[in-house]
Amino acid sequence: MSEVNSSPDASPVPKIKSEPVRKSGQSKANGKRVARGTSRRPPSPEIDDSGSDEEPSSNPKAKSNGKSAREAVDDEEEDDNDMEPQSRKRLKGANGRPRQSEVRDIKEDDDDEDNAEARRATKIFVRDPKDGYLPGSIFRICCQNFLTYDFVQFSPGPRMNMILGPNGTGKSTIACAICIGLGFPINTLGRANELHSFVKHGYDQGYVEIELKGPIGKPNIVIRRNISAKNNTSSWLLNGKTSNKSSVEIAVAKSDVQVANLCSFLPQDRVNEFAKLKPEELLVETQKVAGHKKLNDWHNQLIRASEDLRVIKETLDAERKECKDEEGKNLLLERDVAAFKRRKKLEEDLALYTILVHWYRCKADKLAYKDLRMRWKDSGLRLTTAMEEHRPISEYRAKVVKELEAANKEVKAAQNASTKITNDVEKLKNQDKDLSKECTDIQDNIASLHRDEEQSKKTIKRLKDNIAKYETQIEDFEGNPEEEAAPLIASREDLSRQKNALNMQSRRVEESIQEKENSIHQAEQDSRRAREGLQKLGNPRDQRISRMSNNNDPKFRNIADPLFMRAYHWLGENKHQFKSIVEPACFSMDVIDPKYSYAIEGIISVAQMKTFIFEHKEDYEKFNKIFDTNPLGLQSREWRPTAWYRPEATQEHPLPPPERTDEEIKEAGFDGYAIDFVRAPPAVVWFLTRQLEFHRIAISIKQNAVNPERASRMFSPSTPGTTVRYIIGYTLFAIMRSPYGRRLVQNSTSNINKTDWYNTQPVDAQKTREFEGMISLAQDLIRTTNEELAQLRVEEDGFREREQVLERRKAEVAKQINVIQKKVTRLKSLQSSLNNDRQLLAAEENRPNVEQKKKALRTNLVRKVNARLRAINKYKETITALNAQMEIFTKASYHALQATADIAELDKIIDAHKARHVVLQREVDTLGNEMAALKTALSERTTKTVELVKSATPEVKARQEEYTSEHGEQADIEELEQAETNAKAQLELTGQVNKGVIKIYEERQTKIERLQHSIQDSEVRKSNLERGIATVKSKWQPELNKLVNEVNTRFSAAFDRIHCAGEVRIAENEEDYAKWSIEILVKFRSNEPLQLLTGQRQSGGERSLTTILYLMSLTGLAKTPFALVDEINQGMDMKYERAVHNELIQVTCAEDSGQYFLITPKLLPNLTYHENVTTLIINNGDYLPETKDKKGKIHNYGDLAANLAAYRKQLRKS
Q: InterPro entries in the record, alphabetically (predicted)?
């Protein structure tokens, strides 16, 4: 046997060149061939992304020079395709029928090579006589960091290879390696959808290397695929050289490898898909893997040709019917066509006369245009002569206009000078007015000085009277008031000092009283705490709170949590913010019977015990939101309390029931469920059942009261992914059904450690004595302190009486001081008023002399009067200059008026000339317009005539040329117009024929001719297709019947050997070759008929048995060099599995069989084997031993056989 070993801990070695594995030796021991492969781990690959590619989602089709991989292989063979594939869309022409260029005929193929090959038997494999391998079979497989393997390398045998190993060791990984390594799509495996999923977890890259047997006499083909998990890509090496996926696919296609075919490659995850194959799909897959190599091509040709023939028949029938209908319709329109021809003759006559009328009208218009042009030139000459006579008058008028402009300039200059002089006159008037006002102001100031002098005398008299009055009042004050107030102020200050000293003594007594009261309050608190401590010594909840706060107790050190207690106390202090508060299970839950406390503690974790439970969702959300703000003021945010809330159970979300009833578990030896042994508030009970499933965990505290095997069967879950727990003694059992593969039951156990958290502790006598001593000491302190406090209160009352006496004396002194201060204030006010009046009197007596001011004002008045006289003289001179300018203005205005009158007379003469010019110009314009209109009409008529001639039929054009040549340029236009009118009248009397009818008639006639040609072409194509289908079918059906008969013979014989019945047959359909199919009929019981194999009718084991027997029936007929089935024997009963194994050994070990891989996790004992069987056992695990040579060098890592020999040698030495 060859051991497939994987080594997860092997260290990398320097990179070496990839070399083929040496051929394994053979041994005749026990009639079995024993092969030994290498398991030395190579270095990590250096992935080259130059040939990277994405994993396709469908079967690969490598291309080379525009051909598929299969076509590249058969380049030197003659092409046997009798039909080209036709798209159904391209078979449709413009009218829904196939066009001749879009339907290809099936040609008869009389190729001697195909006929000879069709007569020969199916393909016979030719083995290499040196090693017995078939070309294209797998010679070696090597993987690194691929799924379950760190590294593995082995060489399978040339025939049957049985790959054995427990579940999870990597059997199916070998199937994945073959598919991925040869470049087939990932979805062929029915597993992962991404390429990077095949790299072992924890590694960035890996590779798969497949060595295929080459053609006889040629080297093997080595394909290596490097996979990168980072970017989900891969690169390729072909025979050690960088390559690409297309080249690899071409190399694989040349070897006829069909990994994507379920008939030759059936991985574990697609076993059920084979039975679900439709009969039509089974026929296609069977043709690909066995029989004549062109069976599938012939079948595809027939499918396409039958579809084309169906379309052509439908098209031909439709065209024949359509052609007949169109001919009948045109027969009804022939009378309308004759009437149309008569009307057409009249229309030609009308067109001729219309052209002639326009043609001769053009000739007449040209003559009229020449005469009108001569008249227009004569009128223009007369207009020019009149304009020359008008020129002298215009020149004289221009001279008068210049004289008028000169006179206007003189008038304007005189106006400007007058305006300037007038402005000067106004300025002189304003200057005189200002001087007059200034003289008046000076006179007013002189009068004001007289009034001020009288007022000053009155003010001096009033101030002297006030001074005498103030002096008399000051003399009336007796003594000095400030000196009288001095002793009273000193007495007030002395009283204040006495009061301050008394206050200090009083405050010291008050502080002593406060200290005594604080001592009494502290002693009372100490006494109360001591009494509470005595009470808590026997309360379980208080004991747990004490343990949780104190982490010095080694027994509860892993449970104690000061941060949790801070959060617990915070919640108690802020309970008013929440609707309801529920204490955590560590405080609120009690174990009813202490014997079960260890079991309860074993199924609830410390974190779950300290979870804050809420009955309302808004309380739960508020609690989490508050603690997001760190209300405890922690320096680090690493700790936060755990909170829980779940709504009550509903019909949509019910509470899962227990696996067994109370009666069933007690009958099995259990004491009950965990929820039966605890007591807690309803909210905590809901937490224990909903979150921890206390109502589903059975408990038995007696180790031997329950049979573990019976308990395992009783609590085995029916739903995959569900875990059920129960306790027996001090062991916690957990049972789970795997959601993967066969969904087997998995069992795990763990020991329960006892912590005694929920056990009540005995009362501590030492702490009791300490609390009693604290109470006695506090009572003595309260008694002595009360006595001292009474003495201090007496002293405090004495201080208060003395303070009141001092306060009364201080108020009397303050009253006397107030009276004296009022006198001082009055005296100071009189002295201030006296000083102010004396200062005002001195200022008034020292004012300047009024006579000097009067003299200065009179001098200024004389100066202003003289200036006014000078301004009056200047005014007289300015008036004289203004009169001179007015005289100049009058003369210039007269000259301007005379010139204006002359211009008016000249304008009358000029207007008369202009009127004559207008008449002449109007005549010229009228003739010009008439000439332009005639020219436009002539142009339009000429254009119309050209258009009529151009649009006329050839017959009309010929008749028009004949008429004009006969009559020349002279013709009777009125006669032609009369003939045109007569033609119109006859045309109107002729019945109107719808041109659309004639158009329909002509189009339909064209369509009839086209349909007749198309029918002839379709009949030819139909005949060619029918002949081609018959030719291809004559080659395909015999080969297919031969293949199915051989498969049926082998299949029926195999079923007979297991005492069942089976049949394989062809279901034909002459109209649609795509519906031809292979039907598998089976019978497993004697009392039932043969039934068609489906994915629902038979059981899983029956489907597996049928699948393997069908695949074995194809083995001797297969075209593929190797085949693989993965765990096909799972689900079979022992009888069928043994019979299938023996049949499989017989078929796959025959000389004409190819390489075969059977992957299975187990085999029955005493099975039949053959020397051509190669058994590969997977030895995969976390540790594999090493083999060292005499020098201690590792030379064969993980070689199990070599290590067993070394182990035996070591045993012999010991």
A: P-loop_NTPase (IPR027417), RecF/RecN/SMC_N (IPR003395)
